[in-house]
Amino acid sequence: MEINKKIIELLNSIKEKNPLVHHITNYVTVNDCANITLAIGGSPVMAEDINEVSDMVSLSSSLVINIGTLNSSSVQSMIQAGKRANELNIPVILDPVGAGATSYRTDTAKRIIDGVKLAVIRGNLSEIKTIYGVNSKTKGVDSSESVSENGNELIEEKEMARALASKLNTVVAITGVVDIITDGKTLYTASNGHKIMAKVTGTGCMCTSLIGCYLGSGDNNLLAALSGIVSMGIAGEIAYEGLDKNNGGTGTLKVKILDAIYNLSQIEIIERSKINEE
């Protein structure tokens, strides 16, 4: 597939360019996000104090904003860093973790969307529905819904993703059993990954960091989002297959995901990617 070649080229570009990816993220998964950025070939920096975010983002290739653990000062830093990134044409990705769970989270996600031009928004179905304006179900910061594999629901979710991407002039990526990635015109679905990944906190955050790495190494936001999501899904499959089914568990799985990203090559992408374009 031609799309696989483009993903491989972008992966090679990360390893050549070693993009600096500035994260303003949450303290639950900050270490995982840093390590997966290093594993794929990027360089992570985690800086959120308002006194340095403008300077730090100015040095960066991309900016990851993740609202997983909010406080009022970090929200100001997110918006300030995002505006500075926009001035410098540095791509910004938003992970609206838990949007819909509380009004504060929902309002914060909308403030960022209104104040910052985003290259990509990546979330689960509940989060994207909330941003779109549809009532949705969350459990804490986790989605109680997932993209269906078939039927009318999948058609509706694709239409919602397209409409939101067109409205916001950004790439919208919904991750779940089936991933939906669209810029409002072209739409990809991907179905890599394994259900056990949902048992490890931070797999979504790590996926967002991978997209940040791809964004910092090219100029095609849609391709970057697709590449990050497919890379994470393939890594999850490889990690699960490598588990000792008697003694292995979610702790080992997370380490194996990092290993799989570190060793990700064109062979795995060609042989394993499950991508459809429409």
Estimate the helix proportion, in percent: 40-55%
Which second-level CATH architecture applies?
Answer: 3-Layer(aba) Sandwich
The largest sheet, given as strand count, sense and whether it forms a barrel, is: 9 strands, mixed
Domains, number: 1
Pathway: Cofactor biosynthesis; thiamine diphosphate biosynthesis; 4-methyl-5-(2-phosphoethyl)-thiazole from 5-(2-hydroxyethyl)-4-methylthiazole: step 1/1
InterPro entries: Hyethyz_kinase, Ribokinase-like
Catalytic activity: 5-(2-hydroxyethyl)-4-methylthiazole + ATP = 4-methyl-5-(2-phosphooxyethyl)-thiazole + ADP + H(+)
GO molecular function: ATP binding; hydroxyethylthiazole kinase activity; magnesium ion binding
Walk me through what this model shows.
The chain is an alpha/beta fold and about 280 residues long. It has a single domain, classed as Ribokinase (UDP-N-acetylmuramoyl-L-alanine:D-glutamate ligase), CATH 3.40.1190.20. The chain has helices at about 1-15, 30-40, 55-60, 70-85, 105-115, 125-130, 150-170, 205-215, 220-240, 250-260, 265-270, and strands at about 20-25, 45, 60-65, 90-95, 120-125, 140, 140-145, 170-175, 180, 185-190, 275. The strands form two sheets. Strands 2-1-3-4-5-8-9-10-11 form a nine-stranded mixed β-sheet, sandwiched between helices. Strand 8 and strand 9 form a beta hairpin. Helix 6 packs across helix 7. The longest helix has 21 residues, at about 220-240. The mean pLDDT is about 95.
